[in-house]
Amino acid sequence: MDGAWNRLVELFLTTDSEFLFSVHSDIIYLPGTLARLMSWGKPLVGALHFSKNPPNIPMVYAGVDPNRPHWYNISFDETRAWLEKHQDLLSMSGPAMLEVAPADSLMPVDFTTTGCLLIHRDVLTTMTPPWFVYEYPHGSEDRRFFEAAKACGVQGYVDRSVIAGHGDPPVGAAHWLAWDALRQCVVQDKQSSGEITPA
User: Fold this and answer.
1) Residue 123: what are its φ and ψ, rounded to 5°?
2) For the segment 102-150, what is each residue's pLDDT rounded down to a tens digit?
3) Which of 5, 29, 85, 190 is most enclosed, with most CB atoms within 10 A?
4) What CA–CA distance (Å, rounded) separates 123 from 110?
C-alpha cells in the first residue's frame, strides 16, 4: 500500500494542482465535504470517520499512551462529548454534515487515516520522500505520514462537523455511540461486581 501511495504522490506532484484529496474506496461522503475541508485553510485536515468493523472506533488519535509508548490514544471522550453537543450528526446512519460548521469543529490530532483527507501540496513538497512508509508492528503508513508531516511543522486536524461513512453499509457516529454505550455498561457492571477498580 505504501508503494502505491508514494507513486500517487509522485504523479500528483507532476501536476500544478494545489490539493490532493484522498478518499478510500470504502468511504462514502456527502456533497460539500471537500468544500468544507478546504474552508478551514489548513494544510492537512480530514473528515471524522469510524472504523468499519465493530466496535467502530473513531479514527482520531491524539496523545501518546503512557503505558504503550508506540501507541496513540484514541480520542473517545472528546469525540463523544462533541457528538452529544451536535445531535444532528446522528440523524443519518453513515455520512453526515452540519449545515454550518461550529467554530470548535477542528480538533488537532497526532494522526487520522487517509480515508477522507485533504492534503495541501506544500505538505508534500516540504517532506522528504518516501511520504508513506509501513512499519510493522508499530505504525501504519497513515500514522508515519502524519508523524513525518509534524516533524516538518505541519499540524494535522480532524473536522468533526463532517462525517464520512465507512464500509457497506456505511458506518457513522451512531454506530460507535451504540458500541460505546454498551462498553460503558460492561465497565460499570464489572466495577459493581468488584472485578475491576475505578481509575
Assistant:
1) -60, -45
2) 999 999 999 999 999 999 999 999 999 999 998 876 668 999 999 999 9
3) 29
4) 15
Question: Contact 17/11 with Cβ under 8 angstroms?
Answer: no
Q: Is residue 37 part of a domain?
A: yes
Cβ–Cβ under 8 Å, residues 42 and 53? no
- Residue at grid coordinates 456505511: 170
Which CATH number does the domain housing residue 138 bear?
3.90.550
Q: What three-state secondary structure class fits 51?
A: coil
pTM: 0.91
Q: Which helix (H) or strand (E) holds 118?
A: strand 116-120
Element (H, E) at 188: helix 173-193
Q: What is the amino acid identity at position 165?
A: G
Q: How many domains does the chain have?
A: 1
- Gap between the terminal Cα atoms of the chain: 39
Dihedral sign for Cα 152, 72, 143, 39, please: negative
Residues 6+ apart with CB under 8 A from 194: none
- Specify if 199 maps to a domain: no
Which grid coordinates are listed for 87?
445531535
Identity of the residue numbered 168: D
